[in-house]
Amino acid sequence: MAEETQIPKVFISYSHDNRDHKRWVAELASALRSNGVEVIFDQWDLGPGDDVPKFMEQSVRSADRVLMICTEQYVHKADDGNGGVGYEAMIVTGELVRDLGTSKFIPVIHQPPGSDLRPVSVSTRFYVDLGNSETYDEQFEILLRELHKIPALTKPPLGKNLFAILPSGEESPEYLNQEPTQEPHNSKIAEEVYSAALSIAKSGDFTAWRHLAKDIRQSAIDSLLEWRRLHEQKPPSNEEQLVAQTLEAAKCYSPLAAMALAGVESGRSKFNNQVAVLDDILFPKGWSLNGFKDVTNVPESIAFIYQALHGAAAVITDQLPLAMKLAKTQMDFPFWNEPIRLCDNTGVMGWPKALGQKVTPVWNALLSLPEQWAWLNEMFGDDYKAAIGAYYMALSLNEYAELLASGNAKVFFSGTHKSLDIPLWFLRLEVDDVRRALRLLTQDVDAVKSIWRVHGVEDDTIVLNWADWVKTCTGWLGNVYGFGCFFHAKGYFALLNNILPENPHIQRGDLFV
């Protein structure tokens, strides 16, 4: 418990390039202190007559972490190993970095967008890029989470993980000597992969990431083919067996999903784009489309689970645009003549054929995953259901926005039979989970607004047609579930109150409070 409440102490190492740069570093130091980080900073802690090199060395050794503010001038001085005289002696030399261990030092980029020049001594280490004003807040949050150890991460012991990879990207001796008798979809392996992958992504070691991905990808495919061999001639006899069989197949991909979601959670551009995983899921090498449909359609069900987890991970890490990007990605699908967007494939969105195309057992299976995949609890905590719900709220909003953008909204709303591409099962969650989902979704109001604005739909148009959309949603709920879940749905129907509170056209009826 003491470790959780310990105040982190950092030392800021930088070069005094010019007055503007000194002011920028001072503002960074102040922002860190305002967010619970103790800062050792020369502009505050060093006075006239003090021994600068001694101050620098003592500060580096007493601090928990050292922030190396990497301007071009700083990098050149650090690589030369001769910081100069006076304040410039505060440059951390490569020798000192090696002496204390590179994990203590965090490069912080303060260079023009697109540049990430770093000292050789830390050139492959985890870094934060504060040089781009458009991504500054996101990167600053990553830095804070790292300093506060939220979440606290530890690498798995080498030798116990089938996929253990050294930070350099090389396989450990224990890995090479492992007997290939462990089940590749073992949940313990998925937990270890999640922890290792998150550590690798945060360190920025893309070589290690590629090595890990290569092994996990092949293992997942091999495991799924073995699963099929065992179940090919044993079709399920009831719905319960069908769901259990499909979830067992999905376990084959749990380590790959764990790695992909770790990449999403890292927030780093090289690691959070995990669209390619869907290709591995939908088209496993050696998979035949001939046979019992409950078996041959399983990849679609795994894709459904993966996209839901991916979207939830993006939402809970405040990366809603990343979730929408995957949902709108053009994909090839078995039995489709041409590529379509993921969100247009109802099987992947919520009616997978191998799970009977029934929304209730599919939803229940998705919500039960943390009971079987423990690493989901580590990632989502108590917000798993809320994160899934928030993601599907966003998908539903997108469907509404695209309907308005198409010009067919009035015809659709006036029709008697209204089918939806995105199931509204998130409105079956408990009231508290719906409220938490709403809070997660609206943590970035501008990102939510972009869902309809990207289609050219104005805020007023969203508001003025919202009552018709609510009627459509309640009609769908009534047809599928009956009318018992409307009370739970009020949180979603009140969404515009949170997003556009000043809009004069918002209605304030029972469905909006």
From TrEMBL:
<protein>
    <submittedName>
        <fullName>SEFIR domain protein</fullName>
    </submittedName>
</protein>
<dbReference type="InterPro" id="IPR013568">
    <property type="entry name" value="SEFIR_dom"/>
</dbReference>
<feature type="domain" description="TIR">
    <location>
        <begin position="6"/>
        <end position="148"/>
    </location>
</feature>
<feature type="domain" description="SEFIR">
    <location>
        <begin position="7"/>
        <end position="139"/>
    </location>
</feature>
<dbReference type="Pfam" id="PF13676">
    <property type="entry name" value="TIR_2"/>
</dbReference>
<dbReference type="GO" id="GO:0007165">
    <property type="term" value="P:signal transduction"/>
</dbReference>
<dbReference type="InterPro" id="IPR035897">
    <property type="entry name" value="Toll_tir_struct_dom_sf"/>
</dbReference>
<dbReference type="InterPro" id="IPR000157">
    <property type="entry name" value="TIR_dom"/>
</dbReference>
